[in-house]
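Customer escalation, tier 2.

The customer says the design service returned an amino acid string that "doesn't look like it belongs to this structure." They asked us to rerun it and document both sides in this ticket. The original structure tokens are below, unchanged.
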């Protein structure tokens, strides 16, 4: 799995906590990546109606309040698909092999149950709950 999801959550926390709209350059410094990668992420988040930007004004702001924005919503926006797949199955198992012939339906069932559990969990967590967890981590350092 790639890191778009965690980078998107990081980005959304920064946008949510900023006093003024943050630019992709500012976000990239915190995420530890480049601004073009952040622009690709923010384009997905804008298409998902999670953030907005205004013509002629640098930066982004949240459209959905952190307590109403689930991690599932973020996941769907980032991966832009109606059918989410956390686990992929290799494409060309050998049908001449007893395992290769039956592996796809077996893994589809097993992975489907695991994916459903993960996605259900993401529906119960919000950006606000992640931010609360972050604040608790920060308090541990003080």
């Amino acid at each position: 799995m790639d890191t778009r999801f965690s980078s998107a959550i990081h980005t959304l926390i920064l946008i949510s906590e900023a006093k003024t709209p943050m630019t992709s350059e500012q976000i990239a410094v915190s995420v530890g990546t480049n601004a073009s990668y952040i622009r690709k992420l923010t384009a997905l988040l804008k298409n998902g109606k999670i953030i907005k930007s205004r013509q002629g004004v640098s930066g982004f702001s949240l459209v959905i309040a952190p307590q109403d924005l689930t991690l599932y919503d973020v996941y769907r926006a980032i991966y832009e698909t109606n059918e989410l797949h956390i686990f992929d199955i290799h494409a060309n198992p050998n049908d001449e092999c007893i395992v290769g012939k039956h592996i796809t339906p077996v893994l589809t069932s097993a992975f489907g149950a695991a994916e459903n559990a993960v996605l259900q969990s993401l529906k119960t967590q919000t950006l606000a709950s992640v931010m609360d967890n972050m604040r608790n981590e920060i308090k541990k350092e003080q």
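Tier 2 assessment: The sequence is consistent with the input. The radius of gyration is 19 Å. The CA atoms of residues 13 and 131 lie 7 Å apart. Sent an explanation to the customer and offered a walkthrough call.
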